[in-house]
Design a protein that fits this description.
InterPro entries: ACP_syn_III_C, ACP_syn_III_N, Thiolase-like. This is 3-oxoacyl-ACP synthase. It comes from Propioniciclava coleopterorum. The chain folds into two domains: 154 residues, Thiolase/Chalcone synthase (Peroxisomal Thiolase, Chain A, domain 1), CATH 3.40.47.10; 149 residues, Thiolase/Chalcone synthase (Peroxisomal Thiolase, Chain A, domain 1, 3-Layer(aba) Sandwich), CATH 3.40.47.10. It is built from eight helices and 14 strands. The longest helix is centred in the C-terminal third of the chain and has 23 residues.
């Protein structure tokens, strides 16, 4: 076990909502910023932990898309929190599952003693990049941010096991091509506007997920020595309505996992931490419980991390 514990949580949701049938989606307002959302969630997590920004040793930004190409989003959020301090700040990106990857990375710093306190934040404003001509994606996504403060501990708490794998044959099933070196912003006027909008082949992504996840989870459970029964709560990436049937297929019982797709939709990198924060703050899980964080992301990447609270 890589010993660490969550000592503070915070989240942010925009006030504006839209509905598609009985599904609610949260959409950031034109006068709100991605950076403010991330900084707000981070401040709330630090306040809940009773930790000052200058006491943080490690700041990990875990968003699918950053605020700007340079510097890293972690540095920009840290600037909002303090003008000094001692933290190392950098970004970790596995798109929708970035938070799981970042928690995995942070737990290693903490376990080795290279850091005592880490701040991890995630969040995206993906609705600013949606293509209304792709209704499946346009009606699925919400904007949100979430953050946690994690500390070294002597308690029997921390990361029990983790796994991550990428299947590059599916790298282009879900993508946003424009904005960096392949399609620079300067080329937008003469380029294809679709390159600067989110592009998802939902059917291809779903079929790929269905093919790879059974083997991925079988390997994870075999290597970790855990079983589905050891998981008090599964906190999956809220990818789509197909998430719940897939988890049942993997052997998880109804009520053992969080299904908030209708209530919040796909929050990109914020999905897992936002759902985890809600479970912690509502008392659905608490000290001593084992939580399985998991999901798939563009790439195609899959993550699983078992955390004892």
């Amino acid at each position: 076990m890589r010993r660490c514990e969550i000592v503070g949580t915070g989240s942010w949701l925009p006030a504006g909502t839209v509905t598609f049938g009985d599904h609610t989606r949260y959409r950031i307002a034109p006068d709100e910023s991605h950076l403010d959302a991330l900084a707000t969630a981070s401040r709330r997590a630090l306040d809940a932990a009773g930790v000052a920004p200058d006491e943080v040793d490690l700041v990990l930004g875990a968003s699918a898309a950053g605020v700007q190409p340079i510097p890293c989003t972690a540095a920009l959020v840290l600037e909002q929190l303090t003008s000094g301090g001692r933290a190392a700040a950098f970004d970790v990106n596995s798109t929708c599952t970035s938070f799981i990857t970042a928690l995995d990375v942070a737990s290693r710093y903490l376990a080795l003693g290279d850091a005592e306190t880490a701040l991890i934040f995630s969040g995206d404003v993906g609705t600013r990049f949606l293509n209304p001509d792709q209704p499946e994606a346009f009606q699925l996504f919400s904007d949100a941010a979430a953050a946690v403060v994690v500390r070294r501990t002597d308690r029997d708490a921390g990361v029990l096991a983790s796994a991550q794998r990428t299947w590059p044959a599916h790298a282009h099933d879900t993508e946003l091509r424009g904005g960096l070196s392949a399609h620079p912003a300067a080329a937008y006027a003469g380029g294809d506007p679709a390159d600067y909008l989110f592009d998802m082949d939902g059917r291809a992504a779903l079929l790929a997920m269905a093919r790879v996840l059974p083997g991925f989870f079988a390997s994870f459970f075999e290597a970790s020595g855990l079983t589905t029964d050891d998981c008090d709560l599964v906190v999956p990436h809220q990818a789509s309505p197909a998430m719940a049937p897939m988890l049942r297929r993997l052997g998880f019982a109804e009520g053992q996992f969080v299904d908030a797709v209708a209530e919040y939709g796909n929050m990109v990198s914020a999905s897992v931490p936002f759902t985890l924060v809600r479970a912690l703050e509502s008392g659905r899980v608490g000290r001593g419980d084992t939580v399985l964080l998991c999901g798939t992301a563009a790439g195609l990447t899959a993550n699983a991390l078992a955390l004892r609270l």
